[in-house]
Amino acid sequence: MQRMEEIKSPLSASLEETVQGLPQAVEAVGAALAERYYVPLAEQSLPPEDGRPPESEGAELEQAVEAELESLRRASRTLAQAYQAADNAADELGARLRDMRTARDRKWYVPNPPANAAIDLEEAKQDHFAQGLGLYKVLLICIAGSFAGVVVEMLWCLVTNGYIESRAGLVYGPFNLLYGAGAALLTVCLYKYRNRGYQLSFAGGFLVGSVLEYVCSWGQEVLLGSRSWDYSHMPLNINGRICFVYSLFWGALGILWIKDLYPRMAKYILKIPNRAGKILTWALTAFLIVNAIVSCVAVGRWSSRVEGQPPAGPFWSFVDQRFPDERMERIFANMEFGKK
Question: Residue 340 above 60 pLDDT?
Answer without folding.
Answer: no
